[in-house]
Structure formats: structure tokens, C-alpha cells
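User: quick one, fold this
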Amino acid sequence: MLAITDEDIAYATGVLNIKNGFDVPRINVIKCMESRDVVACPGSGKTTVLLAKLLILARHLPLKNNKGICILTHTNVAIDEVKERLGDKANDLLSYPNFVGTIHSFISKFLASPAFVHYHSSRISRIFEPEDYKLRLVRKYKSLYPPFSGSKLDGFLYGRLEKKIKDSRDNNIINRAKEDLLRSLEIDYTDNTIKKVAFNKKATLLKNPNSDAYKEYINLIHGLQNEGVCSYKELQGLALRYVNDFQKELQSIFSERFSFVFVDEMQDTSLLQMQILEKTFDKEKVTFQCFGDPQQTIYESDDKGCAWEPRDPLLIKNSNRLSKNIAKVADVVALNPYGMQGKVPQSGVPISPVIITYKNDDVSHVLETYSKLIIKYKLNERGNTIFKAVGLVKDKTEGLSITSYYSGFKKNETRRKINKDFTELQSYLVKLDRVVIEKEGAKAYYNRFILAILKYLRMNDIKTHEGRYFSGISLLKYLRESDERLYRILHRYFARIVLLIEKEKSVLVSFKYIIAIIMNRLFRLKVDISRDQFINDTPVSNTVAVNQKKENTYKYNNLEIELDSVHGVKGQTHTATLYLETFYFSKTNESIIKYLIGQNNPTIEERVEKHLRVAYVAMTRPTDLLCIVLNEAVYLEHEIELKRLGWVHHIDVF
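Assistant:
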């Protein structure tokens, strides 16, 4: 078996420029060559540890029997980061027999595509987003089971309607209600039941696969698949069916191709994806390692909490982000505390976490108090600082929400604005909302880059040979056919600038030259970079990022604090973070007070578990200052225990 040496680790340390080298827990992870889970605390540099391991393994390629390495992530942005940070060293990992890609791309390429051919004797023609897919499902239902056809599914849908709808005797109203109910149905491929999904809640409606209504619903799905039509969910369901039917054969195939499989951010893996991966790889023949933190799962998923349950994991407990004081109070709100350790700050004196209290739901003073704390500790005098205030609920008519603290807060409408037509280049090159990136990956950025080039072509009245304006597809086709080298360079450039934009660095200067090169080499148009209005105009107020920053930024003197949801800042690092109390069935911070004072309860309500998960993510963002908001009466009742853990009251600071 391949063994990683200290010399290997020294090599990776040098390439990745790790100043103080790797400590013992991280070296143990890098050297581990068996199937094992790795649980790493927030800010631990988990990805850097994985990259070090990949660098070392790349030195030993080709592996024994010419086997390769499989690297799976959840977003294309993560893939781009691997490629960018490994640089030229990534080339070997990107070639056969290795595979670097998202879990979705792996399932689609190696499992769903051959499953389509096997079960439907056809190939996937298109994968639709959920809403578009459901529209096609309704159309298929109306064509296969028209009114009075004796359909059992139709009868089942009618039977589930509200009495007032049935009593209306209006066929249009009744049919619309049945179609709405049909849209809400989904197959849960983990237990093969059909469930109604509404407001992130699931209720099983059909569980007998032998019932006629069940069979007719499945027939709708198969009918669409026979036409090559699928959704992402159905794609994974088909993949699970395939691995269930051919588990031994598939495990043998993948054991022959891969020696190592690494999955990053494993906590974001759904139960369905987990089952597919578990059955695809034989952990006795392939070293299968998962990296992540199961306590950072906060997105509503197919299953409650985190599907990943680490077994006998290697732990990286010490954070490179959190101070010792923050790590101590954050660890106690973890669902399964493991003694997270923070670092000693450069100043040598960590700032105590602060509780800002309020009375009678009056939180009008909170953001000003938070601002004064930042100034008190002189955090605003540093460079490259990020100050944020985050909460679970954005806006609500009753109870506390982010708008209770800052009335100017507006929900991000990124999806509607993301592909907007802008009058200046800079507006296409801004950082996008995290929710969009989580869903679409780097593709969301790539689309905007192409839109910027298309905009410039239209402004200069440049058309195809058929006399039409270019589309994204026709432009890329023309580029590839006319200048394949430029086509490849452009895609590598896009991958690099996505990472720069995500780090909030400007890419305007280099993008100007890209446009100039494309115009000159493809269309013989010389661009005056210094004078061109589209290239040089400054955005007024219509870019996604600028709008959000202005609308959702509280200002105190010269200090700016950005407000966002906790979901929107997952994965981010802040200089200071304020976790706001909001109302989601109960007050989010008040509901977890027992955990805030260090009392872990073996039984936990579902709502409280959600509050804990969100609080954990919020409280592990800052490097220097953590503040939370709490009702004064609740604070006073538990003041002794809170102070014992290291919390201080905001009044005691000034």
C-alpha cells in the first residue's frame, strides 16, 4: 500500500505555502490511507489538507495497476478552486483514469446516463429544473389520463381535494386543484414512497407500489423518461435503481478504475446521494474518505438534519479562524460538541463574546450598539475587514426578523436580476448571491460573462452569417470552430476569475482585454479600451451586488455593517458577526438558552435543532468579535452561567 512520508508532506507544505507547516491532527489525516471519515471544525483549513493529500498522490501517478483518483465536490466553484490552487500540478489529476467533478456530474455521467440507455433504450435529451419538469408532468398526466378515463390517479387526486373545492362543482377550479396537487407530489427514492411536498414539509400519500394510483404516477415518470425528459431528482432516482440492480458489477468496475475516492463538504450530501455513493464504491477495495462537518448542515434537504453520520472519524478540532473565546461558546451549541479549539489572536488578548440585550421586542438600538463595540475594539482600524449582522428570518409580519433591526433590509431577488441586461461591463463582473452559487455553481458566472460579450456584439451590430444576433450557444460554437485555442483559453480564464470575484477582487481590467482579443481575432474589430463607453462606464445602481450592498447595509458614522441571512453567509469568514434574534415558531436564541449555557439535552425538538444548527453556523463565522442578541429577562435569568462560559453583557463593556 502507498505510504505518505514526511518528505511528501514537506513538499506539499512548500507548494501550498503553509508557513508553519501542518500539525499532528492534519498530518494524521494526510497520511491516512484507509477508508475513514474526516470531521473538521469551521475554519480548520479542511480543503487545504485535502489539497495537500492530492498534491502528494499526484506525485505518485500513475498508481499501482494504473488506477486513478476520484474527487467529488458539491459545486463547480469548489472544483475551480481545486484546479486554481493546484495550478499545473492539477493537470495529471484531470486526465484519465482520474475524475474531478461534482457529485451530480459523477452520478449523471457514470450511473444515470447508462441507466437511461438500459431501462429506456434512449439517451437523456434534457434535464429540467423542478418547476419546468412539473409542467411537463402535468401535460403528460392530461394526455394519458383525460377526464372520465377511469384513472385511479385522477380519482386519488380528486379524493384529496378540500370539500369546498369539490362542492363548487366548477370543473375548471377542480382540475386546477388536482394539477396543483399533482405538482406537489414527489417520489422519495430512499423508501420508494410518493409524498406531498409543501413548505419544506413532506407527507406520505402513496406507499403501496401495487396500488393502481401509485402505478399510474410511476407511469407518468417513465413516460417522460422514454422521451428523454428528466429532472435532477429523477436522474438520481434512476441512478439509485441502477446501482441496486447492478451493485456488484459497478463496485467491481469502479474498484478497477479508482484507488482513492475523496468527497468534500460531505454534510451537504442528501440521503439519496449518500445511498448511491455507498453502493457504488466498495470500501474494502477503494480508499473512500469523506471530509466535512455534519453540524454545519442548515439547508432544507430531503431528510431531517444531516444524512452523513461519520463513523470513527479523524478529528481536526483546532480552528485557524476562531479565537479561543469564540470557539468555547460556539462549541456548546453544536449538536455533538467535540471540544473545538480556537487560536490565540495576534494581539494576544482575545475579545470576549458579547450579548446585546433588548426589552419588549424593541431592538432599535442593537445595530448601533454592535457598531460601537466594533469601534471600541478598534476592529474598524484594520484593513480588509468584514462586519456582518445575520439572522434566520428575513422578513415577517409577526415577531422579530432582520427587518425589525433594519427596516431598509430587502430580500435578495437575485434570480430575477441575475441575467439582467446592463449598460456597463462592470455590472456583469460582480459577486453573486450565495444561494444562486449553491444551486448553479460556476455556471451562473459563466452565463453572465457570455452575456457581457453578447451585449458588446449587439452594441456593435455584429451578427451571425445568417444575419441574426448571436446567442450564447451560437457564440461558443462559432468561437470553437473559428479559434479552438482561444476557446480553451477563454474557459480557463473564466475559471480563474470566478475565484477572484468570489474573493471580491476586481477583474475588470483583464476582462477588457479579453473582449478586445475576441473582437479582434474573431470579428476583425479593434476596440479602443481606454475610450469605449460600455467597457469604462461606472455602474449607477443596477448591479446585483451593488444594489444588495446599498440596500442591506447599515451605516454608523464611517462604519458599514452588511445584513444577510445565515444561509447567505455559510462558508464565509467575518471580522465580526452579530447573530440577531428572530422568530421562527419561537425566538431563535431564547429557544436554545439551555445550550448556550452548556446544558446538552439528549432529546431535542425539531424546531430547536434547526435553531441550533443555524446558531452554530452564525457563531463560527467571526475571527475576532462575536455578538448575539437576547431578551434581557432571559439573559438575567441565566447571567451567572453565561458569564462562566465567557460571555459579557454589552453594558459591562462600555
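User: anything notable?
Assistant: DSSP finds 29 helices and 20 strands in the chain.
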